[in-house]
Design a protein that fits this description.
With 142 residues, the protein is α+β, with helices and mostly antiparallel strands. It has 4 helices and 7 strands.
Length: 142
């Protein structure tokens, strides 16, 4: 029987990352922010930090998930307490979350077709929330 190290693609989606290696530096850049809510792929360090019980078992670490890594105090989501750090994003604009980070970025790139808002559904250890964020208009300065 031959033993080998798994390739990057064979690793579980929810895995420990380390900032001091090339892979960890790449992973650290996988974040995006919409109106003060910071989104990133769920990693093992988030599972412990936010006590995400559903993802502690190794068998539940193979599907791609997106976590709310933080919410700015200036964000409307912070004031309403409807989205908080550690929440798993289940739907974006009423569609299930894509199965890759690239797909999630595409989903977050534009607001909901019908409402012109970003609609985020989250789940935190069984507590489900829905939050709609109005699109802020860009003002051109002349």
């Amino acid at each position: 029987m031959t033993h080998r190290e798994p390739t990057y693609q064979e690793l579980p989606e929810i895995r420990q990352t380390y900032g001091y290696c090339d892979e960890g530096k790449f992973e650290a850049k996988q974040k995006t922010q919409i109106q003060g809510i910071v989104f990133s792929p769920l990693r093992l360090q988030h599972v412990g930090m936010f006590k995400l019980l559903d993802y502690m078992a190794p068998t539940n670490q193979y599907q791609f998930k997106v976590v709310v890594e933080g919410v700015s105090p200036e964000s409307p989501a912070y004031a309403t307490e409807s989205v908080h750090a550690g929440s798993i994003v289940t739907h974006i604009n009423d569609e299930p979350v894509a199965d890759s980070w690239k797909g999630v970025l595409k989903q977050l790139a534009s607001p909901h077709k019908e409402t012109n808002c970003w609609v985020i559904d989250t789940n935190y250890n069984g507590q489900k929330n829905k939050f709609a964020m109005a699109v802020r208009k860009q003002v051109a300065i002349k």
